[in-house]
Amino acid sequence: MDFVIVIILSLGFLIAFHEWGHYFFARLLGMKVLRYSIGFLKPIFSWTSQKSGIVYQIGALPLGGFVQVKGMNPFEEGAFEDADSYQMASPWKRMLVIIAGPLANLLIAWAVLFGLKAISGAPEPLDEAGVGQMVPNAPAEKAGLETGDRILSVNGVAVKTFGDLVEQVGQNGGKKTVLLIQREGRRMPVTITPENKQGTGKIGVYPPFKMVRLPVGEAARFATLKSIQVVKDTLGAIWGMITRTRKDVQMSGPPQIIKEAKIQYDYGPIAYLSFMSFISLMLFLFNLLPIPALDGGRTVFLLYEVITRKRVNKRFDAMLNTVFFFILMTLLVIISAKEIFFG
């Protein structure tokens, strides 16, 4: 029950802060905000500010959120006439409002990574063939492996780094495999059958780690470089999935994210916060993809307007955003159903 509350609050915060980015810059740049919503569909909570008239609400479907800015809907009355309308602002101002949401998620991720390194220290993976965290009910846990075990060989092949371990286990998906492990000075064999996931063997272990705390300047540098590296690796994985050169990459929906979050939660607050920083970076990157209905797609249209000095046809814009919104929601439902019913 504690985890349910924590995951709802933490994911809700990431969504709320993303929308706050849109909200803050819209108001800062003189646009009238009508509604600030966490979630979609009929509100289960709603409050209207007497001072600003802005409606703050929580929707029944907590998969995202939105900020309703006056005139953002091009068919709205006064959209191209009222001075406080989104449509009356320069394309650069509109673009800033759009990208402010993803940038807010980038800021959260950076701040968490910085704070963990500068204040409490953060786990740094060690490239050694050992057992750190284990996935519940995965082959490693079922075979009796324990955190702290050192794996010396896989089917007689010596392994020294975690990369060696991943490579050797990956070749034995669905096959009985003998690991020679070292535990508290004793050596013992462990028989295990790695899961076969798309042709690759997985036993459900993470590398061991050590806690590292850095001075403020180095922590800031670490947070910056780590954020860049995660984004770079993710883009590479997406490209590998598109070109089918990476068979180990697959899309994850909310069920898989929550499952992974539970693993990190059980491992401790630092691991959980690190994972949430990763999710925030994914929200930053996903929302900037040049796909209609996402912030990245809207940004592409605004860049087109800057270059050509012509607006995209408002009917075409609205139709494309609506179609892609339903495509994305359908894809999300399909991926989630697959993860729930087929694992």
Folded structure, characterized:
By secondary structure, the protein is α+β, with helices and mostly antiparallel strands. Among the domains are: 2-29 and 89-114 and 282-342, no CATH class; 139-202, Roll (Pdz3 Domain), CATH 2.30.42. Helix content is 51%, strand content 19%. It contains 9 helices and 10 strands. The protein has helices at residues 2-28, 91-120, 139-142, 162-170, 216-243, 254-267, 269-287, 295-308, 314-342, and strands spanning 33-48, 55-69, 122-125, 150-154, 157-158, 177-183, 186-192, 195-197, 200-202, 209-212. The strands form 4 sheets. Strands 5-4-6-7 form a 4-stranded antiparallel beta sheet. Strands 1-2 form a two-stranded antiparallel sheet. A hairpin with a 2-residue loop joins strand 6 (177-183) and strand 7. It is elongated.
Question: How would you summarize the topology of this molecule?
Answer:
Blueprint: H1 2-28, E1 33-48, E2 55-69, H2 91-120, E3 122-125, H3 139-142, E4 150-154, E5 157-158, H4 162-170, E6 177-183, E7 186-192, E8 195-197, E9 200-202, E10 209-212, H5 216-243, H6 254-267, H7 269-287, H8 295-308, H9 314-342
Antiparallel strand pairs: 1-2, 3-10, 4-5, 4-6, 6-7, 8-9
Helix pairs in contact: 1-2, 2-5, 2-7, 2-8, 5-7, 6-7
